[in-house]
Amino acid sequence: MRWAAGLSFFLKMSGTALAFGVQLLLARLMTVENYGVYALAITWANALVVLAGFGMPMAAIRFVAEHQARVNHSLMRGFVRFGYLATTVSAILVAIGLAAVVLLFDQHLSAQTVAAFVIAALIIPANALYIFTGSILQALRRIMQTEGPQQVLRPLFIVTGVGIVILVWGTDAVDAVSAMWVTFAASILVLLVMWALLRGAIPEPMNEAVPSYEPRNWLAMGASFLVLLGSAFLNERTDVLMIGLLLGSGDAGVYSVASRNAQLLAFGLASANALLGPLTARFNAQENIGELQRVVTQGARIACLISFPAGIVLILFGDWILGLFGEAFRPGYGALVCLCAAQLTVAALGSVGGTLALTGRSRIVAQALLGGVAVNIALNLLLIPMFGQMGAALATMFSVIGTNGFLVVVAWRRLGVNTTIFRIS
């Protein structure tokens, strides 16, 4: 487990540095308003990718690992086929829906905003499919193949694309629309790479097995995971979306930079989750609570070991870091501090939502997250008009910490597992 954690950490670190570089590059090349349009389009695309996936990525982590542990290659092959079909159909419908809504209200939006959101619709199927592919690879414990394309190649493709735009059309050509086209091209390339990697990772017995299907079970679990993942995403990104609606793209651009920097701290827990997902499903299938507790505790410690030093740097030097993006982004420092505090608290509480979901308790997780989203929206509506960007950060901090704290209690009482770095008696 240690070598895999080390590899995951290295790839997450590389991806974090590259993502920071991409964000810095685009913010420096665009105006604040332009970057705000790009940030809003990407945020909506990422939100709808969760819907488009219909919970299949998380279902893949559970079912592929579970069927492999039980040496049921027929169900493994059947699930992979079914998962690709469900994801493709769902993603296309969601993409068409987004494009239709944007074009229906185009008279109320700028031409640049309309173009950016139409391209966002094109990005949705590509992202949904490569995320599902990555989840299969993760379930097969192929860390390099899972993390490499998404964490390292994708930002490199974006930087390369931006460079091509500058060389061919000049710096002024880098705006929200061209950045969205570059992002779309990067997503397609990542999808092709991950498909090629999956072909080499599939176990030979699975390729030779006759597929069998349990569609009702998979769809029911996928729907449950969809509510869980969608609620978790909205709990984290409601602030950006509501600032865009209430304050405009300029404030959304400033806040988005602060938010994205704070989210860099999540790579600690994400590194641990890359290992915890398949192991959680496996030990739950084997009813081995002792081993499950061990890996969950180790995952929380890894998350804190990675995230806390980075968090201290962001809190102490955040104003200077935001200044690298441009002087117009410095007002987001207060929000950055609040969001960093939220991320560090979540890291200390461990992978509680994922642990509960992968052990068959996704309903209570979904209910808690939906409640968190409702509280988040209410707090944003109350605090943004009063405190602006700081109000959005406070709303997110309170709702995220409250939701995860509640789930820690649920995990301890219903599963008998302490997901945190703290001792519970």
Summarize the helices and strands and which ones pair or pack.
Elements: H1 2-29, H2 32-53, H3 56-69, H4 73-104, H5 111-139, H6 143-169, H7 176-201, H8 204-208, H9 215-246, H10 249-263, H11 267-285, H12 289-324, H13 333-349, H14 352-358, H15 362-387, H16 389-415
Helix pairs in contact: 1-6, 1-11, 2-4, 2-5, 2-7, 2-9, 2-10, 3-4, 3-5, 3-9, 3-11, 4-5, 5-6, 5-7, 6-7, 9-10, 9-15, 9-16, 10-13, 11-12, 12-13, 13-16, 14-15, 14-16, 15-16
Can you put this structure into words, describing what you see?
The chain is an all-alpha fold and 425 residues long. Helices cover 85% and strands 0% of the residues. It contains 16 helices and no strands. Helix 2 (32-53) packs antiparallel against helix 9 (215-246) and helix 4 (73-104) runs antiparallel to helix 5 (111-139). It is globular. It starts with a helix and ends in a 10-residue tail after the last helix.
Question: Which key terms come to mind for this protein?
Answer:
425 residues; mainly alpha; 0% strand; globular
Concise description?
The protein has 425 residues and is an all-alpha fold.
Largest sheet: none
Q: How would you describe the shape?
A: globular
Task: Spell out the helices and strands N to C.
Answer: HHHHHHHHHHHHHHHH
Helix content: over 70%
Pick out the low-confidence regions: none
The residue-averaged pLDDT reads 85
Portion of residues in beta strands equals under 5%
- Round the Cα radius of gyration to an integer and report it: 21 Å
